[in-house]
Amino acid sequence: MSDIRLANWKQGLIYNLLIWTGVAIFTATQWYFGSLAAGRDVSWWQTWSYSIRSSAVWALLTPLIYLVVRFTGFRISAPWPALGIYLLTGLAVAAAHCVIFTPLQWLLAPREPGVAFTGLLLRLLADKLYMNLLVFSIVVAVLLALQAYRDLRERELQAAELQTRLVEAEISALRAQLQPHFLFNTLNAISALVESQPVRAKRLVARLGDLLRISIERHRGQTTTLRDELIFCRAYAAIEKARLGRRLRVLEAISPDSLSARLPALLLQPLIENAVRHGIAPKRGQGTIHVKAAMENNSLHLTVSDDGIGAEHIVEHIGLGNARDRLRHLYGSRHRFEVAHAPGSGFTVTLVVPQ
C-alpha cells in the first residue's frame, strides 16, 4: 500500500511539473506576442524567464493546495465551512507566492534604479495578490473536479464489484440446485411418493420446477424485498424437505411490516443452505431451522438459526463470506452481521439491514 501511495505521489509531482511548464510556455508566448502587438520592445528570454519563475513557485505551492483540497473537500449542502477554509488558504498562498517570487525576481531580473527589496515585495503584493487569488481558485476548482471524478470512478468500481458478487451468488445458488447428487436425491424422493402420495409428489415436482425457473429466469437487481427472498427460499426449503423428510423443519416468524423491507438479493437462501448442509444434514434425528424477521428502529432484523450439530470453528466460504462482503459494500458500518456457533447448539446468523 505504501508503495502504491509513493508511486501516486511521484506521478502527481510529474504531472504537476508538466502542467505548470505548459502554463509557463503558454503565458510567455501570450505576453510576448501581446507586447509586440502593443508596440512594446521586449525580449523573448525576459518574458520566458519571468513566466517560468512564476510557474515554478506555483508548482512548489500546488502540493500544499492539493493537501488542503483533499482534507477539506466541498459539499454543496454545507458549502460555507469549505469556502471559509479556501478563502483563508487562498490569501495565505497568494501572499506566499509573492514572498517566494520576490527574491527570484530580485536576483534574476533587471532591477529598476532606487527600488529596494522591501519596496519590490510590497509592489508585488499590491499588483499580484488578486491575480494570485484567481490562480489559486482555478487550481482548487481543477483539483475538486479531479477528486469528484475519482470518487465517481470508485463508486462505479464498487457498483461493478457488487454486481459481480451478485452474479457469483446467483451462480452459487444455481450450482447448488443443479448438482447431480442434489437432483438425483430430489427426484428419487419424489419418485418414492408417486404411488403412495401422488398429490404431494406433483406438488414437489412443481416446487422443483419453480426453483429452477426462478434460479434461471429471474432478473435481480442489487436489492430485493424480503417477500421475494422468502418466495425463493420456500421453494428451496421444500426441495430440501423432500430430500431429508421429517428430519428437517423450517419455521418462520415474519412480521408483516418486514415483508416490504429491502435487503441484498439472494442473501437469505445461502444462509438457509448453510444451516441445512452444515447443521441439519449431518445431524441424527429431526432438526429445525428458524427464520425470524422484524422491523426495529427503521432497520430489518433478520435471524436464521438451527439446532444442528454446530461447530467449534466456522470457515466462511462463498455463502457467509459473500454475504458479509456484500453487506459491507452496500451499507458500510450501518449494518450488522453476526455468526454464533457452538458444538451441539447449531448456528445462528443475525443480520441488521438499514432501510
Report what the structure shows.
There is one protein chain. The chain is of the alpha+beta class and 355 residues long. It has helices at residues 2-37, 44-72, 80-108, 117-178, 180-193, 198-217, 226-244, 268-280, 318-331, and strands at residues 223-225, 248-254, 262-264, 287-296, 299-306, 336-342, 346-354. It has 2 domains: 2-156, no CATH class; 179-354, Histidine kinase-like ATPase, C-terminal domain (Heat Shock Protein 90), CATH 3.30.565. It is rod-shaped, with a radius of gyration of 34 Å.
CATH architecture of the largest domain: 2-Layer Sandwich
First-residue to last-residue Cα separation? 34 Å
Radius of gyration: 34 Å
Order of helices and strands: HHHHHHEHEEHEEHEE
Number of separate strands: 7
Q: How much helix, percentage-wise, in residues? A: 55-70%
- Determine and state the CATH class of the largest domain: Alpha Beta
Strand order of the largest sheet: 2-4-5-7-6
Could you name the CATH topology of the largest domain?
A: Heat Shock Protein 90
Question: How is the biggest beta sheet arranged?
Answer: 5 strands, mixed
| Outline type | rod-shaped
Fold topology:
Layout: H1 2-37, H2 44-72, H3 80-108, H4 117-178, H5 180-193, H6 198-217, E1 223-225, H7 226-244, E2 248-254, E3 262-264, H8 268-280, E4 287-296, E5 299-306, H9 318-331, E6 336-342, E7 346-354
Parallel strand pairs: 2-4
Antiparallel strand pairs: 1-3, 4-5, 5-7, 6-7
Helix pairs in contact: 1-2, 2-3, 2-4, 3-4, 4-6, 4-9, 5-6, 5-7, 6-7, 7-8
Task: Record keyword descriptors for this entry.
about 350 residues, alpha+beta, two-stranded antiparallel ribbon, 9 helices, about 65% helix, about 15% strand
